[in-house]
Fold this sequence. Notes:
Blueprint lengths: L4 H10 L1 E6 L4 E3 L4 E2 L1 E7 L1 E6 L12 E4 L3 E2 L8 E2 L2 E5 L4 E7 H10 L1 H4 L3
Antiparallel strand pairs: 1-10, 2-9, 3-8, 4-7, 4-10, 5-6, 5-9
Amino acid sequence: LSIDKTFISSICQTAMSPKSVMPMLDVFALGDECKAMYFVVAGQLAYFRGLSSRPNALEGCTTVEAGRWVCEYALLMAWKHRGLMVTMQTPCELALLDAGAFLSVLRSWPLVRDYC
């Protein structure tokens, strides 16, 4: 399966956006509708499954570092966040892949259109 460069360019131009988050702030919260997949470009995040507010200690969190991603389920189905994601001691740079825009681009791709 060969992927058309125009298709990839369309995703980057219409479905991707940057997001900067200052230290010690929420990225998303438990129960919020998830509308994007998040790629960590720089910085570090902490994820607390099942929590709606930041605990006093980082014990029990999952650390998400640059080069990793989260929330890919948003590209496949309606999804609500199942925990709290926060930035740590430094700012974070994220790249967001908007699920709705991604689906629109995907539906325009002839090899996939009939399956979406």
